[in-house]
Amino acid sequence: METARRVFAGPIEFLLSAPKLEFLPEPKVPEIAFAGRSNVGKSSLLNALTGRAGIARTSNTPGRTQELNVFDVGDPLHFRLIDMPGYGYAEAPKDVVRNWKALVFDYLRGRAALKRVLLLIDARHGIKPVDAEIMGLLDKAAVSYQVVLTKGDKIKPTALVGTAKAVADIARTHPAAFPHVLTTSAEKGEGIPELRAAVVAALT
């Protein structure tokens, strides 16, 4: 965790937003991607992870992020964080959903630099059908992923333990899922050191 703390204490910068795969930078360094439902708290978690309050824009409007947002970590460049568009926003127009699926599928299938996807699940709700669908997609694409529970401070500790166990039980049935489930709270900072360590460990 100390190594990870030092990594994230160094330079981290937003690089670009890519509406299509061809706009991404050359895959010269490892990448860690973040996926999750539109209101799962992905931007808040990225801000907490990097220790920079505004590096990922938060919004009260679900489905705002429709591109792959790329962040450079380290100088010299060590690895990249990829903020994937939120999924499962029911009110999104069909063409937006179609474009989202095409972008994400292309990235997951064709990005050799991708080391792991961190799949964010709201601790208050557990795995929803749309999350299970994404887990199946990741299995099919043979992309290693780890489930991270967000908003852990919004439910009672006993309920959080129960949700984490239930989610871990489901994750163990998925061939591409990393068996250990992380629990976090961006607001309280809980689980953030462990998440940083998981990111750094995934690089190797």
Short description:
By secondary structure, this protein is α/β, with parallel strands linked by helices. The chain contains six helices and seven strands.
Describe it for me?
- By secondary structure, this protein is α/β, with parallel strands linked by helices.
- It has six helices and seven strands.
- A seven-stranded mixed sheet has the order 1-3-4-2-5-6-7, sandwiched between helices.
- About 3% of the residues have low confidence.
Q: Residue-averaged pLDDT, rounded?
A: 90
Helix content: 25-40%
Give me the side-by-side strand order of the main sheet.
1-3-4-2-5-6-7
Q: Any idea what the shape is?
A: globular
Largest sheet: 7 strands, mixed
- Hey, roughly how much beta strand do the residues contain? 15-25%
Helix-strand makeup class: alpha/beta
Number of helices: 6
Radius of gyration based on Cα positions: 16 Å
Order of helices and strands: HEEHEEHEHEHEH
